[in-house]
């Protein structure tokens, strides 16, 4: 039997190490495969408190421990300015426009796979690698395709949906074929310091803090009227930006005598600063049959056809829905096979063909047949 | 891969005679110098002999040398305790904008307590002006703390001139001589300083040991309490082995050795500048190259090349230089020294590295470093131009 041993030692891979278990195992696997591995920690947000403590410190300490355990050099890079300009401003602008932004999608597009990739190339990297649950495959023409992560529960292609072919060609996802428990088991087997570390939750710059309080420090809240779609006043809201389409909690209204079903946010009108509420999880105003999307981006560089049928996700970890996509430049009309609840402007719509993630765009408008739903 | 160390302003490797002195001390004695038995006396003798060596190195008397855990403790003690002890005489302190954080942070704390601190500005060469000093000095001034030489750009401060001005003034004069010790001849009487801080690990001695010189008559309470060591001025059982190592390191720094090093390091600066110019690599020196400076420090600006990329690439190629001080999360803090010299908006702050030479640095090391530096800077500039 002929054994081909690939020599990866001249291939430099710069790994984005966050101090979490996923990127720790990413670096470990690459090192085991013989690559010239360099770990780099990104500091994107300054959350130094009045005692001079910032959460990034503990994470960086974990990077240091893991890198020493694996035997790779590690460094840090500061992208606070880039993050502020390219992600946080977008985040605030979207809220100001009455939409619900997705900073993780933007962070991947602008920071992890752009600013970081640029920096890695300055370090003479051949590839960057991230601890995302996603997989890639290269076809006979050399085109890289994005595949869902093997762990259906952890698949992160939704957040990677705005990446270009050029970005994908430079990226490795070494843990994409693994299940999360397998990743933890590998970390434990090799005694990595992060093996049992809790996964980070929430948006990186907000962390565990109170979202409403955080947002109110950057955007002035404008309380306004809360009404039913039939025009009945139901009280006041604290500011439209605090509410997401389809959200239940926080309305402060109980059921009434005729109907004990809970109340949900079913619409927003930025012009009149009105929050619309309705009773019932599947309130008709929450049900959409199609949407308009912009900034459509495909990993291969182009849509499969001018019109095609595939499946879609409208938020992370949602079940796929069958859709028909009609392209118009970088915009698309996406018609659902069956109605979908709480389509939220500002969020990503991501398209799939079986295991392959095709790409995605940003939701601008939701429709119920021909009627635009009052969501911004 | 060979690793070449060009970050000697951060710390230096211990010299062989230092390791030998410490090993001997650790193997032969372990006594507590305060103990009144044979073991204690053995250790006490080592302390006395070492203190003589340390005192002689700055023309001081042994009883005026207070051993500390390093320059950070010496600076903290000097500044905080002098300010508190002289509160009845005034609340004004003069320092420079380019001191080490172990001077600036205690001063920031004193400001919170109501003291008034004047930070003398520096010019683009990293020099303060005596006219600024004279304008700042008044009869409320109780403390002047000016470093002997700067750790980032190597500029030397007019210590003797300030000493003369303060000869008949109430203000206590402190100088942080950490970087200058081992390169410049320091005589506390000639300089007219009352307090002087140094650290052993910058001169091929061990880490965690240093001293504070205190002129007779300058009194203030101890920072660390709970023991009668160091003539009741610094509590805590003495680190005898480190003190022995410190003295061994000091013995190696003869006046000739200092002069030789200064000349050798100036030669390295010339070698680097000539080679970069010869290769057509665009660069600017932060500060100036001058004979009387601390020549072991060389700070260079490579326009358009980020400190992160340059320092990291050099490290990956085996060359250790400094990109500035890092925060606890690893990212670089903008240099307060370069900011003071060139303004907060200067691109230099994010595009400079510090190279610092030591006793073991060779011309061959520098030649290899220059080769790697040229290659990396050229590649980064080519990438940026794309």
CATH superfamily of the largest domain in chain B: Type I PLP-dependent aspartate aminotransferase-like (Major domain)
Under CATH at level 1, the class of the largest domain in chain B stands as Alpha Beta
Number of helices of chain B: 13
Please report which band the strand proportion of chain A falls in: under 5%, 5-15%, 15-25%, 25-35%, 35-45% or over 45%.
Answer: 25-35%
**Topology as H/E string of chain B?**
EHHEHEHEHEHEHEEHHHEEHEHEH
CATH class of the domain at 12-131 and 174-189 in chain A: Alpha Beta
Molecular structure report:
- The complex is a heterodimer of chains A (376) and B (386).
- A 6-stranded antiparallel beta barrel of chain A has the order 12-15-14-13-16-17. In chain A, strands 3-2-1-4-7 form a 5-stranded parallel sheet, with helices on both faces.
- Among the domains of chain A are: 12-131 and 174-189, Rossmann fold; 220-281, SH3 type barrels (Roll), CATH 2.30.30.280.
- In chain A, 24% of the residues lie in helices and 31% in strands.
- Chain A is globular.
- By secondary structure, chain A is α+β, with helices and mostly antiparallel strands.
- Chain B has 386 residues and is of the alpha/beta class.
- Chain B folds into 2 domains: 4-12 and 255-385, Aspartate Aminotransferase, domain 1, CATH 3.90.1150.10; 16-252, Aspartate Aminotransferase, domain 2 (3-Layer(aba) Sandwich), CATH 3.40.640.10.
- Chain B has 13 helices and 12 strands.
- Chain B has helices at residues 16-28, 38-56, 71-85, 101-112, 130-136, 159-165, 188-191, 229-232, 240-252, 255-278, 307-316, 336-342, 363-385; strands at residues 4-5, 65-68, 92-96, 116-120, 141-145, 172-176, 195-199, 210-214, 284-285, 297-301, 319-320, 352-356.
- The mean pLDDT of chain B is 97.
- The chains are: A alpha+beta (376), B alpha/beta (386).
- At the A-B interface, β2, α2, β3 and α4 of A face α11 and α13 of B.
